[in-house]
Every structure is written in C-alpha cells, then in structure tokens.
Amino acid sequence: MKRHILLHPDPRLKKVAEPVDDLSDGLRNLADDMLETMYDAPGIGLAAPQVGVMSRLIVLDCVKSDTEAPRPLVMFNPVVLSSSDDRNVYEEGCLSIPDHYADVERPADVRVGWIDRDGTPQEEDFSGLWATCVQHEIDHLEGKLFIDYLKPLRRQLITRKMVKLKRDQARA
Fold it and tell me: Among the options 18, 92, 137, 142, which is catalytic?
C-alpha cells in the first residue's frame, strides 16, 4: 500500500526515531509499503519518519539501470560502523523536499550494520551513490535533512518555498 510522504517542514521529520525492538509482521508490511512508495515516487531511498512512523527503518535501491536487476534493501536499526576519510560530493534530493537539490559532501565509503526483515544481523560496505543514499536515510532517523548541511540562507530559502508549496497544496 502506497503511503503519504511527509513534506518539510513537518516536526516529525526533525525527531529522532525509536529503535526497533521486535520485528513484527506490521513492521515488515511497513517496509513493503515503503518500498512501493519509494519506487512510485520515484526515489532511491525512504526512511520511516518520512511516512510518519518514528521507527528506525529505512529502505533503499540505488540500481538505476534497466539492464541491472533491482536490489531493494530493508534495514532495521541501521548504523554506520565505519567511514572512509575520502569524501564524495553528490547532488542530493529528498522525497520530503521535492524539486530541490544541493551538493552535499559525505564520506565516500561506509560500512553499515543492520537487521534484515528476517531478524538476521547484516553488515556491508557501500560506496558511491549507495554510500551517499544510506547515509542520507540514516540521517532521517536522527532528525536530520540534507538541507541541514547547507548554508543557513540557502536552507531558509528552500524552507520558505516548501511552506508555500504546502500552503498551495492545502488550498487545492
């Protein structure tokens, strides 16, 4: 089932998400809903707080090629275990801040640990777009948005445009 994506500014997007203590069918269904919502948007990552659920759950799939099979990942309680000193800059966007993009610098490579949908602990090294995406989504679990990396003036400009967008949508 497709979920509604919260738009910035929304106070829920600035809150720290709660750890997942017990994997229930409800949480697995939420993960499936989030993947459907992410693909439909279309996007490459989505965090539970973006759909109004304050749990530490993210989904991502950075495969963009038609010749490559999709690789949906579901991560409960994801954590960056280590990161490289090397840095990458990617132009980031966010489903909660549509049509706004900015260059963000992050570690180029990260090792992430998480629990999969079956409750099995996992660890994997990510680089390139995958590293950027997983860090962006984990930031959401900490109440941090990609615009928080921008200079205050740019962040305020984007926020004002988002307030106007939400006001216009409410009138429609």
Answer: 137
